[in-house]
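Consider the following assembly input.
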Amino acid sequence: MEKIRKNTWLVKLIAKANLSTKNQLVKSFLSSEKKYLPKNKLEANAKNVLKCALCPNMCRFDCPVLKAEKSEALSPSGKTRVAHLLEIDKLDYSRDTVNVFYDDVDCDACKQWCPFGFSVGELSVGVKRDIANKGLAPKALLAVKEKILEQHTVYPERITSLNINQKKKKSDLLYFAGCTTLNKRKEIAAATTKIFETAGVDFTVLQEEWCCGYPLHVLGFQKEFQTFADHNLKSIKEIGCKTIVCSCPSCAYMLKKIYPKGKYEVKHTSQFFWELIKNNKLSLKEVDGEFVFHDPCALSRKLEVYEEPRQILRSIPKITIKEAYSNKKNTQCCGRGGGLGIANPRLSLQLAKNRVSQLKEISNSVVTACPSCELALKEADETIEMLDLSEIILAALNNEGQRAR
Amino acid sequence: MPSEIDRSKGSKTESEKGKIFQRLCSAIGSENVSIQEVDKVAYSRDYWPITFRWLLEGKIFTLPDFVCWPTSTKEVSDIVKIACEEKIPITPFGEGSGVLGGAIPIDGGIIVDLKRMNKISEINDQNLTVTAQAGINLTNLETELNRKQYTMGHFPQSFHCSSLGGNLSTRAAGEFSTKYGKIDDMVISLEAVLPQGEIIKSKNTPKSSTGPAVERLLLGGEGTLGIITEATLKIWPRPEKTVLKSYSFENVQDGLDVIRNILRKGLFPAVIRLYDALETERQFSQFSQARNKCMLILLMQGSEELVELEQKVTENLCKEHAIDCGEEPAHHWLEIRFNVKEAADFAPKDVIFDTIEVSVTWDKSMNLYNSMISAMKKINGVFYASAHASHFYPQGVCFYFTFAGVPIKTKPEDFYRKVWDVAMKATLDAGGSISHHHGIGIMRASWLSAELGQSMEALKKIKHALDPENIMNPGKMGL
């Protein structure tokens, strides 16, 4: 109805136009677009890619990659313009034309400003699938893909389970720690399981938790991603859980929005912890300290969760929480999204430095809710103190007073 | 290829290009120079609607040979000196949102992208000025000012996607211009690199009487007379209060009369926008009080007492001739003002459309409005022609026309040119100026002589004196 009302003016005008104009308009509306779209069937959404390419780049000011690199080819519409030319065979797939799609953090900053609601990161996934299908993905990334296939995680530590509650085959709640937590930030898993125990939450974990597949998905390795999704889905089904709780927002995003819909809810730990606090399952004592909260973009934008972490922090007595200027849905990416940490570590680090400098203006102590963000920001600046929400909660439970670690 | 860009490219051999590449790399560092194909393609166009056709059809006409990202004024000067010695063209580039082809490297050569020059060096509270490099994005500049409780008051529709330098080079106007002025009104001083590499910098003084202001030649110069590298601009304390209002008038004339009287009182609401009936229907169809009428949007901001006074006076002047439509339509405008969907929606459907902004004094305003609309409608295939007036002065007004049509038995480019030609002629016949704030670029180049008269000859002489090799953005503005 709304659409009809909005376009009444156009219908009226067309009705008033002379016959030759009318005929031409009808012809144009019915047949023109096809002329400009690729003839072959592609993974990329060519119609939306073209729409994005025809925009004056209205989201460019907020693109963290462009802020770091200042190059038109890496601007949001700059990328889709290249994509369109590649798709209609007017530009060759070469190292430099292909590379622009991997210099991407899939952070959805652009999506907020787009009248069509496009995310260039999401549009690029299709383009990268086409590149991979043509066998033209960058060699270094093919090697990373092989490693992930072999290790079931991107990390050489190869840890794929928490090794707790192993005998427990069934539970209403599955804790999916995620491979960054398992391999690089076990403290988050330890804090999280301790919180579950304190609140009397019955839970289990997967015996073999493979990577959720985010890097494979976002880098365009669709078939391989599917293998990972199938493995995890089969294990999840065996557990028969009603809820899956993830420490990593990207895992939560994949399980919730990219995996086929299951008979369970997917939550990020911040959502689940807040429910526990709200329902008086956790008694939080004082934590003395001043922190700034960094919103992970997968959490605040892809999952639209940004109040729960703040509600948790506000419920801790005595703590001081400050806001970064770019916060909530206006957060700025840590640089590790979109597989950029794998595809272009130099650029990824630059983005992390840019974000750290924004956070440090407010506080040197940062709380966040994503292990990948933590690793990125810590690598950019060793002097900052980084804590996960779970660790702050644990400190409040233990009444350690000052800090969790 | 459109006739405007059918030019012979600079005839450099590959080995000459190799030498120039080496020189550029040693001047500004190899990390700041590219000869990659993807970069050349990315800088082969701006937002001139003709380039939509290029993109749709996959035509890549105007590849530069080199893309440079200088990081300082000295580096800009070094690049210009190399270009001068090597006799190779330079096209300055900000964020490529210009709609007249001004940033297209039609003769190839060097793109000088200013984006790595995006620092704010000073916000001076006592003087109410900001000094920033030309490559800064307007939104990012305004955000930094807002954080410190100031505003520049410059919000063109390209606010999210244009650079300070691009705005200065085209003498751009923002939606709040009735209060804050166009960007050229905001300039206190400029630093720029002239076409032979000389660096000029004017003084930070509010006004002076020291001969002609040479640096102001660069304002509206579109990079043909040099490259602006830094500017000091006026800023304002963030407004204490903002009030939104809207009214609907029977016709454009009634609306214009009331607006003229508001300005005669010495009041300058930040935003005044009057839409003709067709645009009102297109933009505000959900507001029944405006059906078949002309919507007026007002936004008044500043210190509380001043805003209250503006609100009172505008209300008194409007209520006799208009229906009060409340705040909602103005909120709606604020919400959608940066939604630019037309190109994406219509270009792939072979509908040609564009906007044309012109200015005129009050006494000729209705004549210009009527003759422009009827001239555009006369072209076979044009099914839409409308306007709103969006920048006001005690002396006159800027009309912003929109047309849309389908080429009938003619090429899209020729149809597009035909509508522009009648529009430009109608503007000149009615005594208007052919551009209020988009500039000249390629599209209006052939009309600039008729606009300027003998002054065009003077401009050409100045151009020749400053840029004897004609390396600075050649082929633009008829220079």
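Chain B touches chain A through 61 residues (CB under 8 Å). Ask yourself how this observation constrains the way the partners meet.
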